[in-house]
Amino acid sequence: TDVSQGFDLGSPHLPWDHPFYDIARHQIIEVAGDDNFGRKVIVFSACRLPPQHELDHQKLLMYLKATLDQYVESDYTLIYFHHGLTSENKPSLSWLRDAYREFDRK
């Protein structure tokens, strides 16, 4: 299924009935623009993660992958800011490791 539905998944402005609305509204992942070489810059701001009990981390990973899939045909840069985490919103190290392993070039 195509979950992008013609929307920029890196934008927080998805319709409320979009499958990833509950993730996008936190603005954890943002397409920040292009770098000097024309590559998309995608920013993952961990400080925007809500408390663990309010977020489905597997769905967050699916959202991140769907966002990156929009740019996979070209080079892009993914920046992960780990600052701002607390014991309430910090994803587990195993989740971070598993998320890293999920990424590949199509």
Describe this structure in words.
InterPro entries: CRAL-TRIO_dom, CRAL-TRIO_dom_sf. Residues 38-106 form the CRAL-TRIO domain. Pfam families: CRAL_TRIO_2. It is a single chain. This protein is an alpha+beta fold and 106 residues long. It contains three helices and three strands, in the order αββαβα. 25% of the residues lie in helices and 17% in strands. It has a three-stranded mixed sheet, with helices on one face. The mean pLDDT is 84.
- What is the count of DSSP helices, taking H or I runs of 4+ residues? 3
Low-confidence stretches: none
Q: For the terminal residues, how far apart are their CA atoms?
A: 17 Å
Residue share in helices? 25-40%
Structural class: alpha+beta
What is the overall silhouette? globular
The total beta strand count reads: 3
Strand order of the largest sheet: 1-2-3
Protein name: Rho GTPase-activating protein 1
Domain CRAL-TRIO: 38-106
What topology emerges from the helices and strands here?
Layout: H1 21-24, E1 29-34, E2 40-45, H2 57-69, E3 76-81, H3 93-102
Parallel strand pairs: 2-3
Antiparallel strand pairs: 1-2
